[in-house]
Amino acid sequence: MTNWNRFLETFFNAKVMIKYLPDILHGMVITIELALLVVATGLTAGLALALVRSLAIRPLNWLIIFVVDLFRSLPPLVIIVLMYFGLPAVDISPTGFVSTWLSLAFVLMAFSEEIFWAGITSIPRGQWEAARSTGLSFGQTLRDVILPQAFRLTIPPLTNRTIAITKGTSLGTVVAVSEILGAASSAVSNSYSPSPLMMGAAAYLVLFLPVVIAGRWIETKFAWKR
Amino acid sequence: MIETFFNPEIIAAAYPIVLSGLLNTILLSLLVVPLGFTGGLILALLASARQPWVRWPLMAWVDFFRAFPPLVLLVLLFAGLPFAGLELNGFACVAIAFFLNTGSYYGEILRAGIDSVPKGQVEAARSTGLSGLQTTAFVVLPQAVRNVLPDLLSNTLEVVKLTSLGSVVAVPELLFQARQAQSVTYNPTPIVMAAVVYFLILWPVVRLLSRLENRALAGRG
């Protein structure tokens, strides 16, 4: 057997791959579920915090800034581990899936709040005043004047950050979530073959490469022309 | 609550091990940040050659590693390579994975920085007699780096946070040491300690970044 054949036999073993394909596919479903949950809840919470912050209630804003800073400075894996291994000590036992979901959602919330907030503050004060003086309410001003402009500005950084955090779903493997990496790792130890890991790697590329390329496209489309 | 998450006895007992983890995290960061930055610089300089046959493969390379979760890359190196007869320790795997992954991110940022320097600057520099290399080193790069400084800082923060992945491949950094201490004491206090340490060290950076980012985005409005 030539070296090349031996390499293929080890890393792309057809028998092993067929056997563990269902596990990897199931892992993909879990990864997609996790990712969608994180994106939906994280972005919503981030936008909500930014809107509350625009009400300019001092003590509330300090709290928001602290929470945002906290989740921006802690590594996501530390938050996940803390939730999964720490909370059971006070009789709250989130599953690995819930720990990963909530941790990443908090992190995305923090980053997106910062970005939404920067977008909102980037709209000149005069626009607020003009809109309010034409008789629009605070809510209407925010919804019809400020946010449409702010969104445009926030889309490129938001896309990048969302993709980066969504890739963090692979951290779930540390707390026994059988997403792609988790499924692939346990298949490796069951089969004594690295082939499932190669499948897992391919699965990530299938899921995330289109997202990265779409992100690049969005970035150029919404880029601020200077 | 205090007894569980901030147990003073456990803090006293776990203090040395958490401290050694912190030192390793700092050492690891001092290794992987320059490594990733160098990788990025190479990518960005190559990409600033405007030939499409150089630019396209580089873009594919960068997108490939941006689509790949860093933990997957790390596990692939750590658990996959031994099957090819190449056994690397966790530390080496982290170094390689970060060179590839964070290098791609640094590369994208630096490329944007280089693109932001007006072409006239290069022409002016060349016409005063500077060589191509001198122009890049003394005219283009300093301005490029300055233009994307907030992004570079933000990425560096992410890289430092990412060193916590080392715990998965048994590199004794902060999180790994804290988990060791936690499994010995059956108490989450050491992990809380690690979280507090991360926060205290990285908070000033986050504050600074948040000011820089707000200013950058607001400036465009």
Shape, principal axes of CA atoms of chain B: globular
The amount of helix of chain B comes to over 70%
Summarize the helix and strand pattern of chain A as letters: HHHHHHHHH
Number of domain units of chain A: 1
Shape of chain A: elongated
Low-confidence stretches of chain A: none
**DSSP summary: helix tally of chain A:** 9
Number of helices of chain B: 10
> Could you name the CATH class of chain A?
Mainly Alpha
Radius of gyration of chain A (CA) equals 22 Å
Rg of chain B is 21 Å
Assign the CATH topology of chain A.
MetI-like fold
| Corresponding CATH superfamily of chain B | MetI-like
Q: In total, how many beta strands of chain B?
A: 0
User: What's the rounded overall pLDDT mean of chain B?
Assistant: 90
Describe the sheet with the most strands of chain A. none
> Judging by the overall fold, what is the CATH architecture of chain A?
Orthogonal Bundle
Task: Indicate the structural class of chain B.
Answer: mainly alpha
- Total number of domains of chain B: 1
**Largest sheet, strands/sense/barrel of chain B:** none
Q: What is the beta-strand fraction of chain B?
A: under 5%
Folded structure, characterized:
The complex is a heterodimer of chains A (226) and B (221). Chain A is mainly alpha-helical and 226 residues long. Helix content of chain A is 80%, strand content 0%. Chain A is built from nine helices and no strands. In chain A, helix 2 runs parallel beside helix 9. Chain B is mainly alpha-helical and 221 residues long. The N and C termini of chain B lie far apart (47 Å). Chain B contains ten helices and no strands. Chain B is 82% helix and 0% strand. The interface between A and B is large, with 62 and 52 residues.
Architecture blueprint of SSEs:
The complex is a heterodimer of chains A (226) and B (221).
Chain A: H1 3-11, H2 14-54, H3 58-73, H4 76-86, H5 96-121, H6 125-133, H7 138-166, H8 180-191, H9 195-222
Helix pairs in contact in A: 2-5, 2-8, 2-9, 3-5, 4-5, 5-7, 6-7, 7-9, 8-9
Chain B: H1 2-5, H2 8-48, H3 52-67, H4 70-80, H5 90-115, H6 119-127, H7 132-147, H8 149-162, H9 174-185, H10 189-220
